[in-house]
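Researcher: I'm preparing a figure for a lab meeting and need a structural model of a single chain. I don't have an experimental structure, so a prediction will have to do for now. The sequence is pasted below. Please return the structure as tokens so I can convert it later.
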Amino acid sequence: MNPIGIRSALPRLLMAFVLLAATLVAALAGAPARAACSIGACVTAGPRLASVDTQQAALLNPLLGGLLGSSLNLGVADWNTLAQGDVKVLGFLNALQATTNTSTPAQALNANVGIGQVAAALGAAANAEANTSLAGVLNALSSRLAGSGATVRVGDLFKLNADTGALAGSTLNALDMLTGLIQLYNYKNVLTTPQPVGISGGALGQAGLVNNLQLYAQVIEPPVYTCGPAGTQFHSAAIRLKLKLDLVTLTPVTNTLNAVPGVTSASVAISRLDVYLETARGEGSLAAIDAAAKAVTLQVAPGVADAYVGSIADSVFFNRTRTLSAADVDYGQIGTLVLNGVNVALEVKSTARGQAPFATSVTLSGTFPQSRTVSTSTAFVTGLTNSLVNNLALRTTILSTGLSSLILAPVANLLSGALQPVLTTLIVNTLSPVLTQVLTGIADPLLKLLGIGLGQMTVSVTGICQACDDFKLTKAVDKTDALPGSLITYTITYQNVGQTTLSGLKVQDATPAFTIYNAGGCGTLGAGLATCSLGTQPAAGATGPLVWTFNGSLAPGASGSVSFTVTVQ
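Model: Understood. Here is the structure written out token by token.
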């Protein structure tokens, strides 16, 4: 068969076959042009709540509102919609590109954008998936958050280390993203002592213990979520909480005090307590990904949690650049002792350092998204409470003034002498169950709403990312017959038929035998490519190789073309 249609001497016939057999090569800088596959996973370190109850909703509003420096007032149904609402990563990235008016996902992630705009992008992604209830909550939330003014970069929270073509099966949880963005916002924009948010004891589920809580929250380091290959790292947030507790007044029995010689009357009232908590970030890494078995193995180490009781200056505790130490903790008044008719301030301080955790291997398999909570130990909170109790120091200061030394001197002697160990034991025994309840019933539930917990870290795998490169070249000629002196045009079409973007692309060809070069150029540019240049070509009338070089990344499914002309000899 002679497709070119030359029917003359034998050399001309040979030339015709050579024309179609010209060299055609696609080269990707540093990588093969075909069958290179990438495997990764998407992981978050956020709350991933299956559902939100009334008490959790009552905590989420002041906690996240406090971190924003404003107010949130979502109902239980709205919080549940967010907790149970997932959007596709690709859909969110596309919506974020439109919101930020950028050309690529990388540009969108690095653009400065308001939290309200990010919520709107999540809402647009939800709407595109016909999740109208989630879209409605996110759009309403977008309006409420629009007035915050300050901006964040989503890429500081969500690190994309995987090709976008590999993300088709991965999702993002709306509540995970919202809590992560608010923590990032707090870290970037709330630079001073946070404003306290009041929470009633009833809302905390602690009406018998707490009248009211003034909650101060600060993000020391925001979390990092990621999509990437094995070896990619992620982490939870580092948080500082100050819990200023107005207690239901405790009036312990003082028989042991009254039994001390010299004591004629003694009563104790404890009505306040300041507790400080610092949780370091929990660390994680993608250890292994088995796409065939649908299994992801993570190495996870929850952050260390430290607790303090007493008084720490706000300028110290909320200084992100300062590492806290026991020396920063001063005595804080918790109540009064009335001893022989004299008012005495009861002041305490204590520190407790959590045990550094070991990394734990966790494998999640099957259907994604899937979550797991990793704990340092089952007795972590108990150990932290016991350390606070065992390290508790008591100081007494006489408040009454204008009394005779005949009255004050005996009281002072009692406080520094025989009464001191008995009083310390009474205060320790009274505060021990209170501290246990504060840590387990207030602090830990608050932190868990951020995916942390005391000695805990919640991790979620939201999808496995798998994609393979595949590249196709086809070459066409514009004539079926050619005679000596004829001009022939070759068109080379290139197409990305894989799932990942292709960069460093080159197309190589050469003038066929029995032809001389005339001219060449770039045709239609494939989507995602920025420029095309014919950097290597023969001189007109000569023979030799041609090399087209492209800048940018050819998108999955995109195609383009180049061409050149030769003269038949």
